[in-house]
């Protein structure tokens, strides 16, 4: 018989489209299992400030299609400290919350792991970040929507680039990971893709673009992941532009528009599955684990592994992008 009777749910770190679908799934699965649900507002900060509100089935009506998060989110410095986590624990105890679902990225799971080493209230994580950079899951909530947003934007940039014979450096999100850049680059036929996982010298970028230009392309799109060590799209454009005098060079930084918008069908379905699985995990007395999706199946991954191990991009796809772009 599971000990958990009242669970908390929060969203933490950068928001991602589909977080609301996950909150809905957590709430409704809990209600189905006769558990009470408390929404913890503004991530871990809300845990420290006891910013709690009860969630009922109807509290999560009409949100599955909405971007952002109804619980708000934050990056919380105080939760990194032992004092902050102790305050959070006391508030959870006071509110009789005996299990917590954390929807967020690896920073959020680092906090959750530390908390579970110190205190007896189990935390279960759901991967929610547009970056898709969490080890132990093929998929993170928001990635699919963000990718489609980027593809739509780059297609539009391609129209104007071709019309003007221009070379565009398009910077996309991915603080430490190139998933959005690599997949959007393949999907839009980018001439080059620059990601932190592959050390790319300015020389090899130039040769990639030159190879394509032998057949007189009317535009060039170079996708740059913001986390690339080369210094972002402006810096890279500066390094290569003198070699391509025939092109007018422009830089476009897509920025936070990648984080908003109505979640895709994939994000809604996967967030629903993960929200359900997280509550099931708490009912099964799991703690300090993340629920993920690998090869289409739900998996459980210890926070320790999810946080410590690095998820790499598929290097065959890097090669594919090179072959197809010329
Ligand atoms: O972690 C998701 C993410 O969107 C990163 O890709 C990006 O670097 C970061 O968040 C931006 O964070 P903020 O909104 O705090 O500037």
Give a short summary of the structure:
This protein has helices at residues 19-32, 43-48, 82-94, 106-118, 143-164, 179-188, 202-213, 232-240, 265-283, 303-308, 315-325, and strands spanning 6-11, 36-40, 52-55, 99-104, 123-127, 166-172, 192-194, 220-225, 248-253, 289-294, 297-302. By secondary structure, it is of the alpha/beta class. The strands form two sheets. The protein has a seven-stranded mixed beta sheet with strand order 3-2-1-4-5-10-11, sandwiched between helices. The protein has a four-stranded parallel beta sheet with strand order 7-8-6-9, with helices on both faces.
- Approximate shape: elongated
How are strands sequenced across the largest beta sheet? 3-2-1-4-5-10-11
Average the pLDDT over all residues and give the rounded result.
95
Spell out which ligands are present: 6-O-phosphono-beta-D-fructofuranose
Find the structural class using helix and strand composition.
alpha/beta
Helix run count: 11
Q: Portion of residues in helices?
A: 40-55%
Number of strands: 11
Radius of gyration: 22 Å
* Share of β-strand residues: 15-25%
- Separation of the first and last Cα atoms: 61 Å
Number of domains: 2
CATH class of the largest domain: Alpha Beta
Please tell me about this protein's structure.
Helix content is 41%, strand content 18%. It has 326 residues and is α/β, with parallel strands linked by helices. Strand 4 (99-104), helix 4 and strand 5 (123-127) form a beta-alpha-beta unit. 6-O-phosphono-beta-D-fructofuranose binds at residues 14, 105, 129-131, 173-175, 226, 259. Residues 14, 105, 129-131, 173-175, 226, 259 line the site of 6-O-phosphono-beta-D-fructofuranose.
């Amino acid at each position: 018989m599971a000990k958990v009777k009242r669970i908390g749910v929060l969203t933490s770190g950068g928001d991602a489209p589909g977080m609301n679908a996950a909150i809905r799934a957590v709430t409704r699965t809990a209600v189905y299992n006769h558990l009470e649900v408390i929404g913890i507002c503004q991530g871990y900060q809300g845990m420290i400030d006891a910013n709690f509100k009860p969630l009922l089935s109807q509290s999560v009506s009409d949100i599955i299609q909405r971007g952002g998060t109804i619980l708000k989110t934050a990056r919380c410095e105080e939760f990194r400290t032992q004092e902050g986590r102790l305050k959070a624990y006391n508030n959870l105890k006071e509110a009789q919350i005996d299990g917590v679902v954390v929807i967020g990225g690896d920073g959020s799971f680092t906090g959750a792991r530390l908390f579970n080493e110190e205190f007896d209230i189990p935390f279960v994580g759901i991967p929610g970040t547009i970056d898709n950079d969490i080890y132990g899951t093929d998929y993170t909530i928001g990635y699919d929507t963000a990718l489609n947003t980027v593809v739509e934007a780059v297609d539009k940039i391609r129209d104007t680039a071709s019309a003007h014979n221009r070379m565009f450096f398009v910077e996309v999100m991915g603080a430490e990971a190139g998933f959005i850049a690599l997949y959007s680059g393949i999907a839009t036929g980018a001439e080059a893709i620059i990601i932190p996982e592959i050390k790319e010298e300015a020389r090899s970028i130039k040769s990639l673009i030159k190879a394509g230009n032998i057949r007189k392309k009317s535009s060039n799109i170079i996708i740059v992941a913001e986390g690339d060590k080369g210094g972002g799209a402006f810096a890279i454009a500066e390094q290569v532009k003198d070699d391509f005098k025939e092109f007018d060079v422009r830089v476009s930084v897509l920025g936070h528009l990648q984080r908003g918008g109505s979640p895709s069908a994939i994000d809604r379905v996967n967030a629903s599955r993960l929200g359900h699985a997280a509550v099931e995990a708490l009912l099964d007395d799991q703690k300090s684990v993340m629920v993920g999706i690998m090869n289409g199946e739900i998996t459980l991954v210890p926070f320790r592994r999810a946080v410590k191990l690095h998820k790499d991009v598929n290097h065959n796809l890097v090669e594919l992008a090179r072959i197809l772009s010329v």
